[in-house]
Give the backbone structure.
Amino acid sequence: MQDIFSRPLELAVFGRESILMCELLGLCFNTEVSVHLAFSGLKAGAMENHDGWGVGRYDEYGTQIVKESRPAGRSRLAENFQKHLGARSRIFVSHIRRATAGKVGYVNTHPFYRRFDQKTWIFAHNGTIDTSQLRFSSGEFSPIGETDSELVFCSLLSWLSHRDIQLADRNGFTLLHDKLREINRLGELNLIFSDGRHLFAYHDRSGHVGLHFLLRQAPYKVVKLRGQYLTINLADVIDPEERGYIVASKPLSNENWNRVKPGQLLVFSQGNSIFKSVSE
């Protein structure tokens, strides 16, 4: 494979729109992949959404969370992470923040993470939730920051713990979908989260801001990335054995992205789509 950063790129324009919202990104592949192409597209919204960015991933050593409460588009750390092709994983969860609840700061920057059921969970949210009706066990899953998003995360883990629900089959995924719809009644809820084995993506029941997914597999084509003055022949930079799904708030390229239906939960594992709920 050829390194994208060491070869000439054909210049082109793929529109840059003003996006005043948090943005979500999730990857689930059959093998460890680099996030640099998808993260490049995600950063296109970082000039408007300047309150923080973060990326979570899993590798053989455990879980890595890289985040900071500054604009990704002006962050040397974000630039270095994007270019560090050694940062590979089967699953990524990423977020570009525009603060609506909680001040700008590291503890309020997504993604959040917790240990539960011998797994590390990584969680990112877009939307605003009325947290006055959320319940969680203080001490077991207590929020560190001030965001409604972290409260949703703690409430969800508390529910899983008390109900002893195993997210391993259709029955468990259906129960999870029911719980997310219940939380969704309290406000806007777009989620991407992972337990290290599965990638979960839930779209707000009212269709708030949107959520999209893409199956990326060979044969690869020449594509344009969002917000970038370039086109890329994916066949030059991606292993043909790579196969998996990308989920994002907005399409990150001019490929054939699909809309997640409002109120729908998608579950991916090892680069496959293994559950798709019936939307509301």
